[in-house]
Write a structure and sequence with these properties.
Oligomer: single chain
CATH architecture: 3-Layer(aba) Sandwich
CATH superfamily: NAD(P)-binding Rossmann-like Domain
Largest sheet: 6 strands, parallel
Structural class: alpha/beta
CATH topology: Rossmann fold
Number of helices: 9
CATH class: Alpha Beta
Strand content: 15-25%
Shape: globular
Mean pLDDT: 94
Radius of gyration: 19 Å
Distance between the termini: 21 Å
């Protein structure tokens, strides 16, 4: 049996990974740790085989007033946690970073993340994750370190861009036919990927994603279909979308950002849910397990 400590109590991602591992009580014992309580520093890590670190701030366009707080939580807390894990004999440390460390995608410009793509975050949220990665990877010793850089994660009751887009898709009568490509990751597939990392005692940097890229137009269409809502897709608004290509919000929705499949370890067989299934589960708000 492997003992897994999730550092970040009641987190969105941690809760799904906990659900996944709890399907096999004979193989895993899972515990969560509240990292907002300073007493976490006194918690004994030595009895755990794996630490899955999800505590952090996630907002792709943070307010400047929060800069220091982002580095305190996303960088320093992550590093301190990893150092404690290494010092107390944890075998594997899994850190949730983000594709944001590469920067964002742009409207009308194809962007593919490859093994040679440099880290070039757009803002201090991305930089806080980048610095955390660098500090964690510098920790000496035998502890295996896994860095995960997923694209946009979505699922039942998720936060961020997906629910905003879903709300819009359920109401709008028309939508632009902008052609773009995005990598996405369903939370159920992420949870299985983390399990695979634990089972195989992996180390290294991975960019898990769904099996297929998706366009924003197709995503909106699929969401609308799940609500029996009809949308007219027209090119009339396309010039206006391109006109505002420098606006961050426009690029988040219609920009191009995909991951080269060679970075996503598809051989680990973590594609439990198809794109259609994932949207159905997300829109119904059902459990994914």
């Amino acid at each position: 049996m492997k003992k897994v400590l999730i550092t970040g109590k009641n987190s969105y991602l941690g809760s799904f990974v906990k659900q996944e591992l709890n399907r096999y009580p004979q193989k895993y014992q899972v515990q969560e740790l509240d990292m907002m309580n300073p007493d976490w520093k006194n918690f004994d890590f030595s009895e755990f085989d794996v630490v899955y670190h999800v505590a952090g701030l996630a907002h792709s366009t943070p307010d400047e007033s929060q800069r220091d707080f982002y580095y305190q939580v996303n960088t320093e807390l992550a590093y301190q946690t990893a150092c404690k894990a290494a010092k107390e004999g944890v075998s594997q440390f899994i850190f949730m970073s983000s594709i944001i460390v590469y920067g964002s995608g742009k409207v009308g410009q194809k962007r593919v993340i490859t093994k040679d793509t440099p880290l070039d975050p757009d803002n201090f949220y991305g930089d806080s994750k980048k610095q955390a990665e660098e500090k964690i990877l510098s920790i000496p010793g035998s502890m295996k370190i896994v860095i995960l850089r997923p694209p946009m994660i979505y699922g039942p009751k998720s936060k961020g861009n997906y629910p905003l887009l879903a709300k819009f898709a359920g109401k709008t009568p028309v939508f632009p036919t902008i052609k773009n490509e995005r990598s996405m990751l369903f939370v159920g597939n992420l949870a299985l990927f983390v399990k695979r990392c634990i089972d195989k005692e992996l180390e290294g940097i991975y960019l898990p994603q769904n099996e297929h890229y998706v366009s924003t137009c197709d995503l909106v269409k699929k969401i609308a279909q799940n609500h029996d809502h009809k949308i007219l897709f027209i090119s009339l608004f396309n010039p206006f979308v391109r006109l505002f290509h420098s606006v961050s919000a426009v690029n988040k929705v219609f920009g191009n950002l995909i991951i080269d499949p060679s970075l996503s370890a598809f051989s680990l067989d973590y594609q439990r849910y198809s794109f259609d299934q994932s949207i159905q589960l997300t829109e119904k708000g059902d459990t994914v397990l």
